[in-house]
Structures are given as structure tokens and as C-alpha cells.
Amino acid sequence: MRASLIQIGVDEGESVDSRRQRVAALVREQAEADLVVLPELWTTGAFAYQAFADEAEPLEGPTFEVMAKAASDAGVWLHAGSIPERAPSTDGSDEGALYNTSLVFSPSGELAAAYRKIHRFGFDKGEAVLMAAGGDLVTVRLPETTLGVATCYDLRFPELFRGLVDAGAQTLVVPAGWPERRRSHWTLLARARAVENQAYVLACGTAGTHAGVPQAGHSIVVDPWGEVLAEAGSGETVLTVEFDPAKVATTREQFPALKDRMLGLAPPRR
Question: Are 82 and 102 in contact (CB under 8 A)?
Fold first, then answer.
């Protein structure tokens, strides 16, 4: 199976619409891939908090339309990264809640899944207060593997990935806008999630600078033993890797650590 991770450079001088069209062209160039992955909030920049509300769009908005067509034109499964989604209002007001929402398209351009990010970053500011939290784990069944979908800060919460594995995930896809100053955490956590879940991890970050925050780049593909199959540098690039989905089952059979999980442990005595 071939995957292409497009590590997009977010230039604040480039309009959102121009970036959509440019990224769509990059997706179309990956027609030989089976799966293409884009980063988190690449339309606005993950740290451009002031742009979230202004650039928010409905689920089936401009990015949806452009990416659906790009997936269909290339004939690929496309994890189109995430967008600032403006959900429909539930109380009759003009504006509904904002979500950090990932979109996954089939090779025919149909929406296969949407995932609203569960863990929002910011420690009571930024994304954590501007966007609502999702509440559902999302998997997507491909012919060769089952994807488990997470986003950026989710990577720090291993219980989410355990839930995805319990739901059948074999390949964990993590788009992100991860800052350069914590790049060592990015690679460490990607490898840890692969090892502990005996799954592939495809983690796609952004390049450039978002609202003054330099991005880590270094998109990475890790196999179920924790070995790095490919890693990008810091600039905009397409990271393409061939991997064998059957290695997940083989790894879990050869080293059946997941069978030794102890669930429902009693709380410690006080």
C-alpha cells in the first residue's frame, strides 16, 4: 500500500482559496498513491486562532467540495486534514458551534467519514475555548486496512488510540499543526502510539509559521514495531512510503501484548 503525506507550508500571505486550489493540485499529483493525507487546519493555520471564526465553513463547504473533487480526480482515498467547521445552530441563532473537523473521502469523492477533534489544545485559551469538543471515535474501512482517525493534540492521550484499536483500527492517521518547539514530543509520541497499539502511525504535520508559531514539519510514518519508515524535514514536501498492512496482524500474532491488557482495574486503596 502506498501513502503520500503532504506536508503543506502555510504562508500567511496566501489566501485560503488560493491554498485550497494549490493543495488540490498536489493531491491530484498523487494519483499513484492509495491514501493521501493532509495536515490539521491547513486552510487557516492551527495557531491562527483569530481566523477560525472568519474562515469557518459548513461541513459540506468550499474545502469539502474542492477536496472531494481532488480525491475523485486522483482516484485515491483522501484524508483531507481538518477544517474549522461551523456546525448548524441548534437554538435558532445565526451561528452554531465551531469544531476542528477532519474529512475523509473515498476514491469516488464520497465523504467516508468526518471526525470532530476530541482533545482541544490551549489550556483554557485558543482552540480549547474557541472550539467545541467532539465525542465520537471514528474509523474508516479501506480495502487494505482500517484507519483510526485522530488529530494533533489527541496524540498525547493513549486511551483514545486504545479505543480506536478496539474498534478495529490497524493504521492510525494523525494530521497535525505541531509546533517546532515540541518536535521531539511529536516523534516520540508517534512511535509510542505505534508500539503500544501494534499499528502503523501516519502523522502528517505542517510547515511554515502559523500566527508567529514555527511549525515542526517532520511528518512521519512508523510501523507496528515502532520503526520509522520515513520522515520528512521541516519544509513543504510530499512524503511517500510503501507499507504492508498485513504486518499489523503478523506483529500482533508474533508478540501478542494486546491480549495481556488488564481492564477494569480497581482504584488504589487510600
Answer: yes
Looking at residue 90, what is its pLDDT? 78
pLDDT in tens, 143-201: 999 999 999 999 999 999 999 999 999 999 999 999 999 999 999 999 999 999 999 99
**Residue 13: inside a domain:** yes
Q: Which residues contact 203 (CB under 8 A, 6 or more apart)?
A: 5, 155, 173, 174, 175, 176, 186, 190, 219, 220, 221, 222
> 96: domain CATH number?
3.60.110.10
Q: Clarify whether 14 is annotated catalytic.
A: no
Question: What pLDDT does residue 258 have?
Answer: 96
> What is the mean predicted confidence (pLDDT) over 130-134?
97
Residue 18 lies in a domain: yes
- What domain count does the chain have? 1
Judged against a pLDDT cut of 90, whether residue 243 lies above it is answered with yes
How far CA 207 is from CA of 39, 156, 239, in Å, comes to 10, 21, 13
Catalytic residue from among 40, 55, 85, 127: 40
Q: Which domain holds residue 51?
A: 2-255
89: left (phi over 0), alpha (psi -120 to 50) or beta: beta
For residue 263, being part of any structural domain is answered with no
Q: Among residues 85, 117, 127, 204, which one is catalytic? A: 117
Residue 242 corresponds to which amino acid? E
pTM exceeds 0.70, yes or no: yes
| 204 in catalytic set | no
Under 8 Å between Cβ of 203 and 40? no
- The answer to the question of residue 268 being in a domain is no
Of the residues 55, 85, 127, 152, only one is catalytic, namely: 152
CB 117 within 8 A of CB 82: yes
